[in-house]
Amino acid sequence: MTQSGDTTTETERIALSELDGDGRTPLFEGEPRTVRLALDAGESVPAHQHPGRQIVFQVLDGEFELELGAETLSLSAGEIARFDGAQDISPTAVTDAEALLVLAAAE
Fold first, then answer.
1. Per-residue confidence at 1, pLDDT binned at 50, 70, 90?
2. Which of 7, 19, 62, 83 lies in disulfide reach of 95, CB 3.0 to 4.6 Å?
3. Strand pairing partners for 97?
4. Full residue range of the structural domain in which residue 29 is found
């Protein structure tokens, strides 16, 4: 446990290498929402939105084409994008790919 002022929080730890399966896997309970996204080459997530959220999309392995509204970003392992969740979002794996997403409440 870590104490900071009157707030007590517990440190949580997850090894991505120990997670099973593909798709979207929530990593922790509560905020900010943290998700592992693992897709096989050619798989995609249909366009959707996360209103009221800022999203950080970090590519851990492989390559993604990330559609953000009318824009498409090509992202490879080691690259990070931050964007507003109020727009249409649709990631597609160009190769087998894995990303870590952090969805934080917009200020």
1. very low
2. 62
3. 39
4. 19-105
